[in-house]
Amino acid sequence: MTVEERIARAEETLREKFVSIDAIALRNQEKVLNAFKEERIALRHFAPSTGYGYGDEGREVLGKVYARAFGAERAVVSPALLSGTHALTVALFGVLRPNDDVLCISGMPYDTLRGVIWGEGNGSLKDFGISFDVVPLDENGKIDLPAVREMLARKSYKMVYLQRSRGYELRDSFTVQEIGAACAAVRESGFTGCIFVDNCYGEFVEEREPSEVGADLIVGSLIKNPGGGLAPTGGYIAGKETYVLQCENRLTAPSVGGEVGSYAYGYQLYYQGFFLAPHVVAQSLKGALLIGQCMAELGYRNYPSVDRLPPDITRAVRFDTEKQLTDFIQSVQDVSPVDSFVRLEAWDMPGYDCKVIMAAGTFNSGASIELSADAPIRAPYVAYFQGGLTYEHCKLAVREILKKLV
Fold first, then answer.
1. Does the model's pTM come out above 0.90?
2. How many Å apart are CA 81 and CA 86, to the nearest integer?
3. Are 339 and 333 in contact, with CB atoms under 8 Å apart?
């Protein structure tokens, strides 16, 4: 069987799922369009600002568009939020105070956040006397609700923290339905504090966001899903107004909060990227399913199962050896529009406890909504594949990857 025949067979198998993804994208596109219309977006909102940014309509209304689309009371969207980890850090330090306690119910947080939580002498939560307890996932990789209830009964927590994506763990990411059930269980246990969701990689994958099913704060990066491949940097924090206001005070200063913040390059790419995001996410999901189906047919274990719709844009593919892993990552770089000629090497990236190899031949450096793949160099050898601005690019990438594997 030729590579083209393998891809055609996989597409036929996935046809119904592709139809479902398109239907979700349509509903999310309508939601975003309505947010633009309700906020009366005009050309003036794209204008740049300088200095303090007092009266910057572009900045202020962009937050209102995000809040409407995500079913939130308020949102702050800023190019000053440099990454998902930075946005999460700002939100954590915005809400938490010295000697507060946090309960993480989704297992061990992502690698780069561990230094934020438990770092020694680097300004971490631990340095400020903030505890961060972790409830391990159950044997099926799901939230262990009985254990969560037990912890909530034992201690008074200020925040319950949940990470939507798998990170570098070999498990499925959480669906919005699962997040909603967890939020309900937490509230039924008598918890009255802040339910905080790291929403990275999950925006517009489903018809609802965690902020619509019980989360008080959701946080993400604009060089992932909501930037639509156009936002050059930035992050967002959305949710209940009381918590977002606290986060704004930490992003800038308690005396000025969200009243300041300029951007000399203008906001068109942020608005336009958010408008395109539902479609781009759908393209990425189709690409992830295609490579998942093809890899499964070749005998490679990958997650989530291709029998259901993915809960986020990432796909984990497991290999037997380090060489197989690095060859796969290199294959993704080879089909990138930028730096396709680069020969990749694993290196000590900031925030990780082992070497990481990363394929990111992207227009925006490191953008995960663009076709990319990365992996920690440690057993089990798992590559994390994500993104793809167009399904056609994903399909070309799958074709080249299969040529090497077959």
1. yes
2. 6
3. yes
Tell me how far apart the alpha carbons of residues 356 and 368 are, in angstroms, rounded to a whole number: 15
Please name the residues in contact with 114: beta carbons below 8 A apart, sequence gap of 6 or more.
108, 351, 353
The string of pLDDT tens digits covering residues 88-132 is 999 999 999 999 999 999 999 998 899 999 999 999 999 999 999
Residue 56: burial class (beta carbons within 10 Å; 0-12, 13-18, 19+): buried
Read off the pLDDT of residues 124-172 as tens digits, 9 standing for 90 and up: 999 999 999 999 999 999 999 999 999 999 999 999 999 999 888 888 8
**3-class DSSP state of 28:** helix
138 CB-side CA count, 13 A: 8
Query: Residues 186, 195: contact at Cβ < 8 Å?
Result: yes
Tell me if the bond preceding 380 is cis, omega within 30° of 0.
Answer: yes
Strands 101-104 and 159-163: parallel
Residues 6+ apart with CB under 8 A from 142: 178
Q: How far is Cα 284 from Cα 225, in angstroms, rounded to an integer?
A: 9
For 194, residues 6+ apart whose C-beta sits below 8 A from its C-beta are 95, 158, 159, 160, 216, 217, 240, 243
CA 23 to chain CA mean position, Å? 21
Give the Cα-Cα-Cα angle 86, 178, 307 (nearest 5 degrees): 105
Task: Extract the tokens encoding 343.
Answer: 């020969």
DSSP secondary-structure letter at 347? B
- β-strand pairing of 131-134 with 159-163: unpaired
* CA-closest candidate to residue 273, choices 222, 238, 200: 222
How long a stretch of residues is the chain? 406
- CA 329 – CA 343 distance, rounded (Å): 10
Any idea which residue has 């119910």 for tokens? 105
Distance CA 351, CA 381 (A): 19
Distances (CA, A) of 74 to 38, 63, 244: 15, 7, 7
Q: How many CA atoms lie within 13 A of 25 on its CB side?
A: 21
Strand partners, 134: 104
The 3-state secondary structure of 56-89, one letter per residue: CHHHHHHHHHHHHHCCCCEEEEECCCCCHHHHHH
Helices (H), 199-267: 241-251
Identify the residue whose tokens are 């967002």.
Answer: 236
* Tokens linked to 178: 């699962």
- The alpha carbon of residue 211 and the mean position of all alpha carbons in its chain are separated, in whole angstroms, by 14
